[in-house]
From TrEMBL:
<comment type="function">
    <text>Catalyzes the reversible transfer of the terminal phosphate group between ATP and AMP. Plays an important role in cellular energy homeostasis and in adenine nucleotide metabolism.</text>
</comment>
<protein>
    <recommendedName>
        <fullName>adenylate kinase</fullName>
        <ecNumber>2.7.4.3</ecNumber>
    </recommendedName>
</protein>
<dbReference type="Pfam" id="PF00406">
    <property type="entry name" value="ADK"/>
</dbReference>
<dbReference type="InterPro" id="IPR006266">
    <property type="entry name" value="UMP_CMP_kinase"/>
</dbReference>
<dbReference type="GO" id="GO:0006207">
    <property type="term" value="P:'de novo' pyrimidine nucleobase biosynthetic process"/>
</dbReference>
<dbReference type="GO" id="GO:0004017">
    <property type="term" value="F:AMP kinase activity"/>
</dbReference>
<keyword id="KW-0665">Pyrimidine biosynthesis</keyword>
<keyword id="KW-0067">ATP-binding</keyword>
<dbReference type="GO" id="GO:0005524">
    <property type="term" value="F:ATP binding"/>
</dbReference>
<keyword id="KW-0418">Kinase</keyword>
<dbReference type="InterPro" id="IPR000850">
    <property type="entry name" value="Adenylat/UMP-CMP_kin"/>
</dbReference>
<comment type="similarity">
    <text>Belongs to the adenylate kinase family.</text>
</comment>
<keyword id="KW-0963">Cytoplasm</keyword>
<keyword id="KW-0539">Nucleus</keyword>
<keyword id="KW-0808">Transferase</keyword>
<dbReference type="InterPro" id="IPR033690">
    <property type="entry name" value="Adenylat_kinase_CS"/>
</dbReference>
<dbReference type="InterPro" id="IPR027417">
    <property type="entry name" value="P-loop_NTPase"/>
</dbReference>
Length: 171
């Protein structure tokens, strides 16, 4: 865990697939010196590591299913500690209430605020199909499924942070 007494700043960046989370994060990092951590990128790196956990993650992602929250949170914590920084932009997380609860239980650092990147489904689909850093799972069926999962599971998270006064919307 982090040294006590040290202020750690965490900002969550939430938005549907293709909403521009990565693009916005890159701008914030270059201006404010945050370490950008993408839950999705950490999972994809773990898949490449060819471990038993990596294989399990690969199968879940291929089926469009979510990876257990505790695995994601532990990967995030490991990356946060390894970075040596005290300011983190965590992109694509928390995806659902289970993610949020696991984060609160394991990492225990309340986010400074939550950036919600609001974007229409049509715009997200257009961006994903035309982006150049394509992913293996960037096909129309998977994109629609990812968008539906995002809408169903992330809405309660958005509402939670909105009630706390921590939500900032970017259109």
């Amino acid at each position: 865990s982090f040294p006590s007494g040290k202020k750690i700043t965490v900002v969550f960046v939430i938005g549907g697939p293709g909403s521009g989370k990565g693009t916005q994060c890159a701008k914030i990092v270059s201006h404010f010196g945050f370490t950008h951590l993408s839950a999705g990128d950490l999972l994809r790196e773990e898949v490449k590591s060819d471990t038993e956990q990596g294989t399990m993650i690969k199968n879940l992602m291929h089926e469009g299913k979510l990876v257990p929250s505790e695995i994601i949170v532990r990967l995030l914590l490991k990356a946060m500690l390894a970075s040596g920084n005290d300011k983190f932009l965590i992109d694509g997380f928390p995806r659902n209430e289970e993610n949020r609860e696991a984060y609160e239980k394991i990492i225990k650092i309340e986010p400074e605020f939550v950036l919600l990147i609001d974007c229409s489904r049509e715009e997200m689909e257009r961006r994903i199909l035309h982006r150049n850093q394509g992913r293996d799972d960037d096909n129309m069926e998977t994109i629609r499924r990812r968008f539906e999962v995002f809408q169903q599971s992330t809405l309660p998270v958005i509402q939670h942070y909105e009630k706390m006064g921590k939500l900032r919307r970017v259109l």
